[in-house]
Amino acid sequence: MSIFVDETTKVVYQGLTGSQGRYYGLLNRDYGTKVVAGTNPKKAGTDVDGIPVYATMAEAKDATGATASCIFIPAPGVKSAVIEAAEAGFEFVVAITEGVPAHDEAWFYNKLKSDYPDTRLLGPNCPGIISPGKANIGITAGHIAKPGGPVGIVSRSGTLTYQALYELQQKEIGVTTCVGIGGDPVPGTSFIDCLEAFEADPETKAVMMIGEIGGSAEEEAAQFISDHMTKPVSSYIAGVTAPPGKKMGHAGAIVSGGKGTAEAKMEALRDAGALVGENPTEAGELMAEIVATL
Amino acid sequence: MDLLEYQGKQFFARYGIPVSDGEATSDTEEAVAIAERVGYPVVVKAQVHTGGRGKAGGVKLAENADECRVHATNILGLDIKGHVVEIIWIEHASDIAEEYYASFTLDRAAKLHLGMLSAEGGVEIETVAEENPDAIARIHINPVVGLTEEACREWVAAAELNPKATEGAVDILMKLYTAYTEGDADLVEINPLILKPTGEVHALDAKVSLDGNATYEHPDYEQYDATQPRDEREAAAHEKGLQYVGLDGTVGVIANGAGLAMSTVDVVNQVGGAPANFLDIGGGANADVMAGALEVINNDPSVQAIFINIFGGITRGEEVANGIIEAMGRVTIDPPIVIRLDGTNADEGRALLEPHLNDKLMMADNMLDAARKAVELAKG
């Protein structure tokens, strides 16, 4: 099994007619993802390489029965795109777009929570989600992931997610689902949401978690691991040597007021019983050791 | 984007928050003219992106033109923790009865806005939080609901300010919340928020940090770009649109993706080296971006070796290799380069690089080996 998405998930691409949406939408379809529609109010009735384009998410849902959406709309339009998908009843919304203002994110996170509790948002500013061999929604290179299991991956960083998939593939370890939650201050889906889903998924036997500096999401995840996880976890935190007060690329990756350091996160994870690697390769090796004992 | 105090005060004033009458200048005589206009006594304040200005001699009271001139002369050019003062702010001095603290920021853990208010102002809030956490009244605000006046009144009551300050504080905090949300700020902080002997509440300082992602909603924020604290290298990289952070070491780092770039910096440290920078060139790694990145790093005199760490995802190894080769043809690079290329079609990419390898351009099999080699080269 996999978490959140599988081979039956039908996906509508919001922004399919844009250059990024088209490029990744078609790549995702080639991978095997059920890319059933796109939306663009100005291009309704047309198609992108055979994929029909509808004016609204409600129409796309009515016509296709899709339950998931993937947003490739520029930052200023993301807030209304998320709400449109939620209003139309989409259960899983993946927002790839980077550069969304933090106040917008905080607003739609809380709006979904109160008014559309059945909609799960992943992102923004994330690489998306891949259940290898079943569905790939977003910008992950599908062929670097080995299908199967027993490992689930959750990560805040895009390239480190790829690095993790690759390390496991080199060791011939399969992945059930790999979720990139994104590097922004208010991610729609948290580490804990993913850990909880992996814990409940019978095919996932171990979890690799990749964090970075800033915020306290890794510490909260460590608490969850300690309290609720029976499955082993290997982990890596980027930014051990990042200087305080400087954003390391991601909006959320900043050590401020002595909070959000990699050291504190690694310590919390170790205390929770997770194996913590000093670099991505070591985290992969630790996971190989875990898998060997399963 | 971090605002200087005077920019923060101007930002507050736009939302109707009372601040002292004043003006910014880089000129001594103009400072005196401003002082004459706002009326003595005045405070001459250094405008730098760091705390501890008062202790460093960057904040002085002047009773007359002579004093104002002396202070302005001394403060302009003053080095405060590595920040040289180029701008001073002259404002009419305020009488202070009590000093408070007020701020709004995003609580990432709660995913709600957080307001903090304390009767113990004028000192570092971190110190108050540690030594007397009960002295800070906190309020969590759901962005969908906003800050209601009723909730604001309860919050002010909980902070136990002087009752004389209640109405003024409620008024300022409501306006400050509007400034925070409508202005897309990461942080708005008033420390101290003062109660004057005459009963008015007033923002005596302003710390504002704006969300760089929201500039499309606020085109006027471009004006703050010029006063961002950047060293020369960071300014050059910023002009090329590169995500660059200057560090103190000798190994120049180029990687694709923020996480991998951070990880590369870590690994250089782990093998005993010191990175000169963090540089994320994004996913594509094309020749233009690579050439720009190499140029920025090559211009850093402390760089003794360069580590290019690329993981090909959607971008194939051949494209990455061609980008590097083309970039190398365009800019002359002095320090030796070590490349680690992995991921999609890495073998094909490495084969393309092979004929170009020499003692100035090397390849390594993995991230750790590449880091070791670059560090060794940097140490000479």
Describe the structure.
The complex is a heterodimer of chains A (294) and B (380). A 7-stranded mixed beta sheet of chain A has the order 3-4-2-1-5-6-7, sandwiched between helices. In chain A, a hairpin with a 2-residue loop joins β3 (47-48) and β4 (51-54). Chain A has helices at 19-31, 57-64, 78-87, 102-115, 158-170, 191-200, 217-228, 262-271, 280-293, and strands spanning 10-14, 34-39, 47-48, 51-54, 68-71, 92-95, 120-122, 128-131, 135-138, 150-155, 174-180, 206-212, 233-238, 275-277. Chain A has 2 domains: 10-122, Rossmann fold; 141-293, Succinyl-CoA synthetase domains (Rossmann fold, 3-Layer(aba) Sandwich). Chain A is built from 9 helices and 14 strands. Chain B folds into 3 domains: 21-92, Dna Ligase, domain 1 (2-Layer Sandwich); 98-225, ATP-grasp fold, B domain (D-amino Acid Aminotransferase, Chain A, domain 1, 2-Layer Sandwich); 232-379, Rossmann fold, CATH 3.40.50. The longest helix of chain B has 17 residues, at 166-182. In chain B, α2 crosses α3, α9 (287-298) packs across α10 (317-330) and α10 packs parallel to α11 (346-353). Chain B has helices at residues 5-14, 28-38, 65-75, 125-131, 149-159, 166-182, 232-239, 258-270, 287-298, 317-330, 346-353, 367-379; strands at 22-25, 42-46, 59-62, 79-80, 83-84, 88-92, 98-107, 112-118, 136-141, 185-195, 201-203, 207-210, 243-246, 251-255, 277-280, 305-312, 337-343, 361-364. In chain B, the strands form 5 sheets. In chain B, strands 7, 8, 9, 10, 11 and 12 form a 6-stranded antiparallel beta sheet that branches. Chain B is elongated and about 80 Å long. By secondary structure, chain B is an alpha+beta fold. At the A-B interface, α4 and α5 of A face α8 of B.
Give short descriptive properties of this protein.
heterodimer; A: 294 residues; alpha/beta; Rossmann fold; seven-stranded mixed beta sheet; 9 helices; 14 strands; globular; B: 380 residues; alpha+beta; Dna Ligase, domain 1; D-amino Acid Aminotransferase, Chain A, domain 1; six-stranded antiparallel beta sheet; four-stranded antiparallel beta sheet; elongated
